[in-house]
Write a structure and sequence with these properties.
The chain is mainly α and about 350 residues long. The protein has 13 helices and 2 strands, in the order αααααααααββαααα. Helix content is about 55%, strand content about 0%. The longest helix has about 45 residues. The chain starts with a helix and ends in a 16-residue tail after the last helix.
């Protein structure tokens, strides 16, 4: 444990030193990466320069349309953190009776979250590029954020080590007390676990904090969910249950995850992704579920982000898509007059 602790502290110290020395070079790399990420994930809706009706998907999207990112008078009213939190957030069910939404929470279904797709560092790079679209610069200190997370991990490791040491000492004393009483009474005496319950609880809490600090540092530079496999779901349902699930899935499709911002049904909706009129014929329910949970695991360069669907939500949307079984178009049929 001591060696592992020293390794963590040494690694953190090394990272801080490297980050400090390379901050200038990282800034240029961050700008380039922000432009590339924006082009891949954002440009189809927001346009190359952020102007409305510039992206090829803009006119096909349901209201509200994407904001004009080139409008400095409006965009300057947002802090860097506001833009970051818009890009990295949990999706909200905007249906009547859906999620409780605070006055300061961004809840536009057709603007997807990238919280479960991109690293924090990548999202800050996008924020930096968005700032250039209205003639501003990123003020948020990304390098300081890296250092803060690294130091947080170091502090969490030290707290865990101390709590573990206290727990082991208390447990050892309780065992020694039990052995002593056994010798005195000539009877077996159980260890009093309550004597070290407080230290055990403190160690458990410290372990949670250590895991959270490690995850935060990992997610800063690494993409969340990368390499994570999605278990096969049980989509078995009675006809009544499937109908109820499909009804819920339709609501989530439109009002929480904004799938209609990129996909169309009956000619209504976006055109980034494929039309879903015949999804019930074309797509397997298990595949749909796994795609919804982690599209990058199945196609790393897809533009579709992971939207943070719960298992229940993914099942409901899969049931809804299974109901989409429009007849195949007859190419010989006459087209309606325009």
């Amino acid at each position: 444990m001591k060696a592992a602790r020293l390794q963590v502290i040494g690694t953190v110290a090394g990272l801080i030193g490297v980050w400090a020395m390379t901050a200038g070079g990282c800034a240029n790399e961050q700008q380039k990466r922000g432009q590339e990420l924006y082009a891949h994930y954002c440009m189809h809706c927001h346009g190359e320069s952020g102007r409305q009706n510039e992206g090829f998907n803009w006119s096909a999207m349901p209201d509200p349309k994407p904001k004009d990112l080139s409008n400095k008078s409006e965009m300057s009213t947002f802090k860097d953190e506001d833009i970051f939190n818009t890009i990295s957030r949990d999706m909200k069910d905007t249906s009547e009776g859906g999620d409780k939404i605070g006055d300061d929470e961004f809840a536009v279904p057709t603007m997807p979250t990238f919280k479960y797709t991109l690293s924090e560092d990548e999202i800050w790079a996008i924020v930096g590029h968005v700032r250039t679209l209205h003639g501003m610069k990123l003020e948020f200190k990304v390098e300081e954020r890296k250092k803060e997370l690294a130091e947080g991990l170091k502090a969490a490791q030290e707290k865990f080590d101390a709590s573990k040491q206290a727990y082991e000492a208390a447990e050892k004393k309780a065992s020694e007390d039990a052995e002593k009483k056994s010798a005195e009474t000539k009877k077996d005496v159980d260890v009093d676990e309550s004597a070290y319950a407080k230290e055990q609880a403190a160690m458990g809490q410290a372990k949670k904090e250590l895991d959270a600090a490690q995850l935060a540092l990992n997610n800063f530079s690494g993409r969340p969910g990368k390499g994570t496999s999605v278990a096969r779901p049980d989509l078995t349902a009675t006809a009544e249950q499937a109908a109820q699930q499909a009804e819920l899935g339709k609501r989530l499709y439109q009002n929480k995850y904004g799938c209609n911002g990129c996909h169309s049904i009956g000619g209504e909706g976006g055109k980034v992704g494929p039309a879903l009129d015949r999804a019930g014929f074309r797509l397997n329910g298990t595949w749909v579920y796994r795609w919804l949970k982690n599209p990058q695991a199945m196609k790393p360069e897809t533009r579709m982000p992971a939207l943070g669907l719960s298992d229940a939500d993914a099942k409901a949307v899969a049931h809804y898509l299974n109901t989409l079984r429009a007849p195949k178009e007859d190419p010989a049929a006459p087209k309606p007059a325009s």
